[in-house]
Amino acid sequence: MMKTALKLPRSVQLDAGRGGLPRLEIASPLARAQVYLHGAQITQFAPTGGGAILFESERARFEPGKAIRGGAPVIFPWFGPHPEGEDKPAHGFARTREWTLESATEEDDGTVVLVLRLEPDEEAVALWPEGGRAWTLRHRLTLGTALTMELEIENGGPAPFRCEEALHTYFRVGDIREVALHGLEETEYLTVIEDQPRKREGSGPIRFTGETDRIYVNTEANLSILDPVLHRRIEIEKSGSRATVVWNPWIAKSQRLTDFVPDEWIGMLCVETGNLRENALVIPPGERHVTRTVLREEV
Ligand code: BG6
Fold it and tell me: Residue 71: is it exposed, middle or buried by C-beta count within 10 angstroms (0-12/13-18/19+)?
């Protein structure tokens, strides 16, 4: 067992997880979950009596400096490739750094609340000088029968900064070709793979028939994933988020991902809650922003 200066509540243990990385194991009356300090990343969550909500690749890498393929990576302070090129890591650096466990508590009903914190070190400042040296990220995970994730970005410096962020959640689905995603009807989106820069979603739910990579903008709508194969619906509530990203790599891109089993695209769907592109955040000095999402399985 690994050691922490904090007294952990009954339902939480710190151990060496895959690749030897520090991992919090939660086994409460309400849920089971795994959270890595690497990236503050929850990789597994299942409410008691329910199914696994999150997808985790069988080939996910658990190595310092690498992103874990699955669960809910924290994307910050930029989304996607950096405009200056590949010297800067795709989707920022928050998902590949080790965070500090700030607190771990358990309520009387068994709800576990974990708070993980990331502050800038020299490497982060070099990668993102615009952010200065005085920002703090806090990722608060509330694990009850639902999973609540709250990413707080605080600007403790003297100047405003612009940043992008997302809770890049990988959902487990029975078969992506049977899934319907509700909540983005009539919403404008930026296409990442097609030529046209901007499109508008139709009036029905989204169905998946090929590689999908879209940034829906100016939307605060809640979402739901209807999954007839797993006989369930996943409700996604969000607040403090004006963008939603929808991603499935389908066949060809899956084969290019080295940390993915080629047919795993069938069993996953990313629905990401955040603020990016025209909905990027500008955080004034002394202020903070919270992006919150609540995930709940309904059968
Ligand atoms: C999605 C992006 O959010 O993340 C995709 O929209 C990208 O373009 C995907 O391929 C996975 O990114 P990565 O860096 O984890 O391979």
Answer: buried
Give me the amino acid identity at 145.
T
Residues 48/145, Cβ–Cβ less than 8 Å: yes
Q: Is the CB of residue 139 less than 8 Å from the CB of residue 149? A: yes
Quote the ligand 1 centre to 80 CA distance (angstroms).
Answer: 6
Mean pLDDT, to the nearest integer, of 277-289? 98
Contact by Cβ (8 Å): 13, 20: no
Atom of ligand 1 nearest to the CA of 69: 15
Q: Tell me how far CA of residue 112 lies from CA of 33, 99, 146, 157, 219, in angstroms.
A: 10, 18, 11, 32, 30
Separation CA 289–CA 281 (nearest Å): 8
Quick check: pTM over 0.90? yes
Centre of ligand 1 from the C-alpha of residue 236, in Å = 20
Say which DSSP state 266 is in: G
**DSSP for residue 255:** H
CA–CA dist 184, 200 (Å, integer):
10
Residue 84 contacts by C-beta under 8 Å, 6 or more apart in sequence?
none
Q: How confident is residue 196, by pLDDT bands cut at 50, 70 and 90?
A: confident
Q: How far apart are CA 248 and CA 268, in angstroms?
A: 7
In angstroms and rounded to an integer, the radius of gyration of the C-alpha atoms of the chain is 18
The two structure tokens encoding residue 208: 């998946």
